[in-house]
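[job 4417] fold queue: 2 targets
>>> target A
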Amino acid sequence: MTTLLIFSFSTLERDPRVQRQIALFAQDYDVTTAGFGPSPHPDVTHIELPSDTRAWPSSKKHLLTGRHRWAYWDMSAVKAARATLADLVGTKDIVLANDVNTLPLALWLAPRRGVHADLHEYAPREKEHLRTWRWFIAPYQRWICRTCLPRAASITTVSPGLAAEYHDRFGVDVEVVTNAAAYEDRSPRPTQGTIRLLHTGVARANRRLESMIEALRGAPEGFTLDLMLVPSEPGYIEALRQRAADVPAVSFRDPVAYTELVETVAEYDVSIVVFPATTFNLEHSLPNKLFEAVQARTAVLVGPSPDMAELVRGHGIGEVLAGADAEALRTALTSMTPQDVDRWKQASDAAAQELSSEHQVSGWSRAIARLAAMD
């Protein structure tokens, strides 16, 4: 069997995208995984990296002087991985490297048939809303992309917008493998009476979640909104709760386990997936929650983000708002009817197979199979 190392500086058992890779390849390849945390799958050999190490550069002297190569190899996680994986140099057929921070190490491992890079973000602009990040980390990320991406045998990323930017900036061909959810065999639930809206996800201020609360403040009767948020920034959820205190239509719900998420989303009629274009990655995101809504057979409301808008219009699974603000959402709710929602739900049902992870991961299958077939 072809030997494949799947490598990520993440806790593999909690990384849905890496989990999909492992499940896809574990039966047909001799898979070894390397990352943080315990073994993510019973049918792989796992190499656990020290959890107390850091996979972001912290050497100010190297970053300030542009010595990016030294900044990379000086990271504690890279040092630990290099020591732990030293015996694997030249022994694997393929390395599947997740995100750019694994790429120099993956190339150092010298797999016999090459490295496939799977990029979960557009790395050079990942945290561009932070000034210090733009000054010190962005040039380092560009260095990795410039020096390592052309040496990868194949590359995938999560959305067409990110793929186009990698191609335009670094001259590499990139295929899209979305963060699709697994296919679920279920039927749409008819919309009855009140239209139940839901937003799930991480609570970050740059996503401006308060706009949804303000939209419900002046929306017509017949709508409720539940916010099911994962804490990320101290005090932000509490501030949202205070803002919603005088909006009876808005409620907060505790997050559920990932395995229960699609079943929970299916209790609702419309999933709101609206991000302002505060960063390049947000503007071009195709987030998990969009695909979870499809498998839940709910309708979706998205903002004018080009990648989400194209998918929603192409499959007819919801409405694209004129903007990513309260006024645009309120306007959409004012004209929305249960009949509209039921039509979108039926379209989600029709698209569920095509937009499932089982279909979308074919991009990884083709890329790894091409490498496996090389002499």
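>>> target B
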Amino acid sequence: MKKDQSKRAAAAAFMGTTIEFYDFYVYATAAALILGTVFFPKTDPVTGTLASFATLAVGFVARPLAGVVFGHLGDRLGRKKMLLFTMVLMGMATTCIGLIPSYESIGIWAPILLIFFRFLQGISVGGEWGGAVLMASEHAPQARKNFFASFAQLGSPAGLILCLLVFRAVSTLDEQAFASWGWRVPFLLSFLLMAVGFVIRFGIEESPEFTQAKQQETTLQHPVKELLKNYRGHLIFAGLTITIGTAGFFFTNTFMITYVTQYLGMSKQTILDALFLVTIFQFLTMPIAAWCADKVGVQRFLIVVASLCIIVPYPMFMLVETKNIIFITLGITLAVVTLSALYAVAAGFMANIFPTQVRYSGISISYQFIAALTAGTTPFIGTLLASHYTGQWWPLALLFSFLSFLSLVGVLGVKALMTKQEKKISSIQPMVAEESV
């Protein structure tokens, strides 16, 4: 029965995060393709794109707040309740975005409503990720926690594949139809997906580790306070670890759409086709990465992959600059497969460094704060760099390398903290033994 629940929990985490990230990526893709035209029409194309990417960042601003609130509630009340709430919130917010009239219809209220519902999207994802990871990890067998936690991470490429399929369908419409109603279809589909996800999640039992803590009355009244008092270093380095795993996706899957269409003069259909193939490779390789990490050691694996992430943007841009669809796909695949290997493994790695009583708060706050600082601003910064250094890709590659370097610092920092903690425990044990004698 326990084995069955672990598989069901992993499957539910995968399905739930797929739907959540579908909604989030739908907004990101629409921001790159059309939202500037619909909601900020009285600007030039670059300014309109910057404005739409600024609203994209609003969702990331909301995520740290959600990480604190849902982390606290998840450690106090349980993982399952939070996941059901965030599912409904995301579905409603995304559906409402698809119903907002254009700027031409209601004026300034159009971008105001867009920002409001985008904020609610950020709140939902901010509370979702930590709970999904823990439901998969805490239901899993002890030796396979990293592998099972990676199923929550698989929701990211799966959601993107679904997003790209829907946008590929509606982008075949003529420009007028796409601008008037076609872009709304991916948002409105969220309502149906929300209903499916809610039913799947409702049938999963609460995390056994949280249930045990509740029964033993070891849950805390103020888990965030405890976290900030005794685990500040863990928070900082855990967040840094996931940097390229979050920011890198929005670099390759959001900013790259703008870069290829506006600066290389290629069609949006071409880059969407390329990203679709890239995401399939990403989806297939992430479980393999998690399996390999369990075999060779998670810390060692993450150090190697983070180091590779520093290097990969240079061959990626060399291949993208050829303007050949095959080479573009190959270049982006090289970068995405590398950063997604880190992303797949980092979830279980982060969860394992926090005790059960503060685990939801720990991984949520660390993840969401770094996402707000880096992932939410990456497309915006990339667009600024591309417009300022027209025809030069090296500043963009340096941005990617810098984000990867932060991940390497995070892994090494966690490793140092865990080593220090192990030494402290080993030094206390002989003292305890002597006292017992």
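[job 4417] complete. Note on B: The chain has one domain: 2-204+221-418.
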